[in-house]
């Protein structure tokens, strides 16, 4: 009996692995001198043989290469799931993530990589990206300039490299795939060690401006819908050697120049600031949504920017992702979400795929209130664990991340349609749904009037917050 069960288990495992590694059309093994390993970068075969186009199979499916909750064309609250989600793949994690960490070497030896950072390799990788997008059914992507094309010895050489790869990307995008956002990598190269727009070195500020100028141009050329500024090293390690006021002024001037250039080239995409409290600097200037909003208001930039909220950054700043998206929303600043999550026991940006349905449901409650994210979307700024090393893991991770958010959308819609949570919140504030409440909310109640009422009414009756009931209702939708 026992051995029969064991055989059955072996058989079923075998089925799963067969699905995943099914028979082999030609792939692109970079190391064995196949066509794809030549310098042309023109190889057009399959990079993911055996991985089928991922389809929706419903919650009861046991197929790891299928969607259980994300059904792109299905309508939820009058909008297709794909239009609520606007998923995007982050080129840097998915195709430049190596699994290396401060303690250890890269662990991911993708078969298409030849171990170089050449232009030919960059082009081949771009083809891998588009095959991945096609198979996973995601029609948007995001990149940093230096992820997709190698840095040159001069700005002109870097720009020429970028142009070559971007021309290929444009061709591969065709009509089906579009660019959610582009951005500039202003934190890897040593010239940016003190920051880019906030570096005390004029030469660095100038260089960063040239790099962003070019990145905005190629984002525009690729039809990008947004342009992101994540202040990788815009912050400080010590205030003793830092003129914070001057650095913030410089950052504002940099953004003003970006706004002017955007208008000059006719780029209509949204400019997004991505808050993060620290890492790599000890203190980043765009600490969280509220700090970024305050910066934008102080410098009169608030109408020109929105925010890109990243869930793992939210928790690093001591907030929940729900708090950050809600803060952005009520300030009219919710522009995009970098969909990932942190580890509750780890204190850094682990960039994991979001797998917590509760967290996703909370985020989706705000996204629905916001009427969606367009022209932003959900960008999977998330990476495989260092120990996940199979090519199929790239698919499985994105599928699980998409399913989690899709399930969050379904749950949030259920909660909204059911109405009891909304009713609970409405009731908590109903004392303000009165003549005096309306006067207060319209800013027409002065202290003299309020004092008169306080004397007339005496000790106020204070109701229950009903938190556990709210949590019970929330749980019932998960
Ligand atoms: C890093 C950021 C980065 C931005 C793009 O923590 O999340 O990946 O999204 O520069
Ligand atoms: Ni991010
Ligand atoms: Ni991040």
From TrEMBL:
Domain Xylose isomerase-like TIM barrel positions: 148-327
GO biological process per UniProt: D-xylose metabolic process
Record field: catalytic activity: alpha-D-xylose = alpha-D-xylulofuranose
Record localization: Cytoplasm
PROSITE patterns associated with the record: XYLOSE_ISOMERASE
Keywords per UniProt: Carbohydrate metabolism, Cytoplasm, Isomerase, Metal-binding, Signal, Xylose metabolism
Signal peptide as annotated in the record: 1-22
Keyword Isomerase attributed: yes
Statement: the UniProt record of this protein carries the keyword Iron-sulfur: no
EC number(s) given by UniProt: 5.3.1.5
Pfam family, one: AP_endonuc_2
Gene3D superfamilies listed in its UniProt record: Divalent-metal-dependent TIM barrel enzymes (3.20.20.150)
GO molecular function: metal ion binding; xylose isomerase activity
Family: Belongs to the xylose isomerase family.
Name of this chain's protein: Xylose isomerase
Organism: Buddleja alternifolia
Source organism phylogeny: Eukaryota, Viridiplantae, Streptophyta, Embryophyta, Tracheophyta
